[in-house]
Structures are given as structure tokens and as C-alpha cells.
């Protein structure tokens, strides 16, 4: 197991940070690493917005389910899927940008996620820690207004970064057999495997909370998925130019 | 600049591989790294399908724009966004899975992409190389049939992996100033910066092709984006349970 594998396997989300700035040189390296990620057909369809303004941070924290660490972290980035730049590229070459296909939505969402994961790994390699903030999609319209996002750009997630001031444990992942299949998809043994996994997760929670919590994985994610997820997203995205054609 | 940053910055897509298998122990490590990536609310909404069957590989290559390296690479993985497992989790807890929100589509697409990027980085750290295959979305219905994907699962991209048998150059990324903004989005200087970037890219192509090709970045991506992108995706996804509600 080499150092990179070690780093990747020891990932854990960090939400509590030391009151120490992240060095500008490191931030530059982090963004360079983000940009080095693969990109579909070279389109590089993302923009990263670094939020320095503390008032903005406060607003974003409030709009994202009151996640305090958005205010507290030394470095807060918002990763946007960006097709606006490609529209500009079209205009520069007297071409007409074709808007609104779901495929283009996928392209930009995948592109920005690849870049973000590179950023997080680079940061972690420097002793920093961080967490993704999907909560910015709680109020994507207000976030977009704050960030002055044009059409064909949407905020996918935020990322808090800084020097860790907590040591959380890794969360046990699904058994590999359930996530990795060979040649075709089958879920024949999933229920059995999930039951075993549930037991492990339950024991983990019991141990970590001194018996206060004994939830299973399937119950936890089942509760989540039996409720509509951010039902405002469709209208927001449509308004923003992502018409899901 | 540490070793990880070095590795991330030196990424290049590899499409030509030595006829050497990837060790099973390494494959296991790669998948473990994939699973260690962040996951939204712990949902782990993806399944990785390893394609060993050579007939299947041939079919997939044909369906993905005749990309020969899908057949030739020692290890070929297909990364699927997977909500089916979460549906099973609902059923195990007598809950009703809510299908079809665009937000859930985002959650699973982001989750699978984070995992995939970890897989690629892990592989690269072991001396392997690889390339993402978005081409599997050329014929997602036939690919899904081949892989026996149930509803609420869709194939996002493939990944070819193996020991590199070519040494391609890195492709120059956009200037950082255009990708990284502070506090809010602005594209005021984008055209100027893109013109400069275009010059650099043009010179790169001229040099690499001995003057045969002199394309600019904006022309290249503009040509792409002035054509509808995979317009079949909407209907395919709808059929597959991703109704973009």
C-alpha cells in the first residue's frame, strides 16, 4: 500500500478547523491540481468561487442549513458547473451555443466533481482536511444571486478546507462485493449483504454514542430516500438554463 | 510540492496499454480507494461493474464510438449511478422510495464521480494509467441492457486502466484566473483571457502535429457545443427511472 492509497483510504470529513489560514501557495497548488483532473472533451466546464467576504459566508451558511463551519473554515470554495464559458467560446467563433440538454448537464456536473475531488485530495496531502457542502443546493436560487451566477452556471457543492481541529473516525463503507460486480448487475445477494452491513453499522453507532444511537445503514438512507429530495431543483435549474432536454 | 500534488499535476489520459494484467491485489486497492471517497449523506449511490467478458467488451467498444482501447485495456470498469440499492434499503425498512427527482440524479452522479476519481488516482499512484469513457452514453440503452441494469441505475462513464504503453503530454489547462473567482462570478475579462489561451493552444497543436493542425480551444469546444449533445439521454434516463422531476 503506497502513500497515495494510504491517504485516500484514510479520508474523513473534517468540519472543525484550527484558526490558522491556509497558505496562498497551497491554495494555488490545490486549484492547479483541480484543473489537472480529467475533463470531458477538454471542455473544463466548471468555475470555482472562493468566498472571502465574511458577510457572504454568513449568508451562505444560513442558506445551507446553518452549517457553522462554512463561516468558520479558513478556506471556503463553491464549485459551479459552468457552461457559460463554452457559450462565450461559441460566440467568439460565430457559433450558436445549444442550450439545455441533460447530457450537457451531466458533462458539466461530472467535470466539476472530478476537479473538486482532486482539490480535496491535494488539500489532504498537505495536512488539510475538508468537507463537501451539498447544502448549498437547499437554496440554489439565493446562492446563485449572491454569487451573481449567469445562466448556464449552477452551484453544485461547496467545500470547507482548513487545518483539522478534530479527529473523527472513518465511516465503514459498504462491503466491496455489493459495490463491485462482474460483467453485469445483480442485486440477488444484496439484502443478505446489507443485513450484515447494518449489523456492523449499528454496532459502530452504539459504540460511538455509548448506546444512545443504534441506527442501521438501510434505515438511515431509507429514511432519507423516502422523502422528496430538494424538489425545487428542477425549476431552479430550468430557470438557470439547464432545461433537461 | 509533495508527491501527491506531483501525481495529480502529471495526470494524462492513457489509451494504449502494455499487454500485462493488472494485479488482483491492486484492483482491490483501487476499489477500496474508490469507496473511501466522500459520499453525500453516506448514501454511497454507485455500483462499479468490471467487464471481463471479451465479447461484452467488444460490444461496448462498438456501442461507444469504436474506441478500441475498451477492448484492449487490461481492466475495464463501468461506473454506474445507483439508486436501486437505496430503494432496496427503503423496502427493507418498510419505506417507500421516492423516485425521479433531479436532485437524486445529482446526488448519485456526484457520488459515482467522486469514487471514480479516487479509483483513477489510486491506479495512477501504482504506475497504471487510464482514461474515462463518456462514449458509453452514446448508446446507454443498449449498454444498460448488456449490463442488465435495473431501473434507478444508469451508466455514467467507463474507465480503461492498465500499464501505459505511450507517453502523451499533459494538455494545457485554462488560465487559473478564468477558473477561480473571488466572492462572485464575473466573466468580464474572459474573452481577453480566452484569446491568449487560444494562442497557446494553437501553438501547442501546431508543434505537436508539425503544422497539420492549428485549432484553438474556443473553436474546438465551440464546435462541440453548437451541436446537440446526446439528445437521446433524456428519454433514456426517464425510461430508467430518472424522471428529472
UniProtKB/TrEMBL annotation, chains A, B:
CDD domains: NfsA-like
Primary enzyme class: oxidoreductase
GO molecular function, one term: FMN reductase (NADPH) activity
InterPro entries noted in UniProt: Flavin_OxRdtase_Frp (IPR016446), Nitroreductase (IPR029479), Nitroreductase-like (IPR000415)
Swiss-Prot/TrEMBL keywords: Flavoprotein, FMN, NADP, Oxidoreductase
EC number assigned by the record: 1.5.1.38
Superkingdom of the organism of origin: Bacteria
Record's signal peptide: none
Statement: the UniProt record of this protein carries the keyword NAD: no
Keyword RNA-binding in annotation: no
Nitroreductase domain mapped to chain residues: 9-163
PANTHER family per the UniProt record, alphabetical: OXYGEN-INSENSITIVE NADPH NITROREDUCTASE
Family listed: Belongs to the flavin oxidoreductase frp family.
UniProt name for this protein: Oxygen-insensitive NADPH nitroreductase
Source organism of the structure: Clostridium paridis
Amino acid at each position: 500500500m503506497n502513500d497515495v492509497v494510504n491517504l485516500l483510504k484514510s479520508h474523513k470529513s473534517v468540519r472543525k478547523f484550527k484558526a490558522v489560514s491556509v497558505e496562498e501557495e497551497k491554495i494555488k497548488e490545490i486549484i492547479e491540481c483541480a484543473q489537472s483532473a480529467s475533463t470531458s472533451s477538454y471542455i473544463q466546464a466548471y468555475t470555482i468561487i472562493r468566498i472571502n467576504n465574511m458577510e457572504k459566508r454568513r449568508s451562505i451558511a444560513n442558506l445551507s442549513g446553518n452549517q457553522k463551519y462554512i463561516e468558520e473554515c479558513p478556506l471556503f470554495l463553491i464549485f459551479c458547473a459552468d457552461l457559460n464559458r463554452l457559450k462565450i467560446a461559441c460566440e467568439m467563433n460565430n457559433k450558436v451555443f445549444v442550450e439545455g440538454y441533460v447530457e450537457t448537464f451531466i458533462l458539466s456536473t461530472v467535470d466539476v466533481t472530478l476537479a473538486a475531488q482532486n482539490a480535496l485530495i491535494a488539500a489532504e496531502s498537505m495536512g488539510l482536511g475538508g468537507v463537501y457542502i451539498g447544502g448549498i443546493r437547499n437554496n440554489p436560487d439565493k446562492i446563485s444571486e449572491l454569487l451573481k451566477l449567469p445562466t448556464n452556471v449552477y452551484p453544485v457543492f461547496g467545500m470547507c478546507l482548513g487545518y483539522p481541529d478534530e479527529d473523527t473516525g472513518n465511516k465503514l463503507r459498504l462491503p466491496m462485493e455489493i459495490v463491485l460486480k462482474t460483467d453485469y448487475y445483480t442485486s440477488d445477494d444484496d439484502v443478505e449483504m446489507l443485513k450484515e452491513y447494518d449489523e456492523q453499522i449499528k454496532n459502530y453507532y452504539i459504540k460511538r454514542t455509548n448506546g444512545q444511537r443504534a441506527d442501521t445503514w438501510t434505515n438511515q438512507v431509507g429514511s432519507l430516500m423516502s422523502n422528496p429530495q430538494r424538489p425545487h431543483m428542477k425549476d431552479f435549474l430550468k430557470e438557470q438554463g439547464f432545461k433537461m432536454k
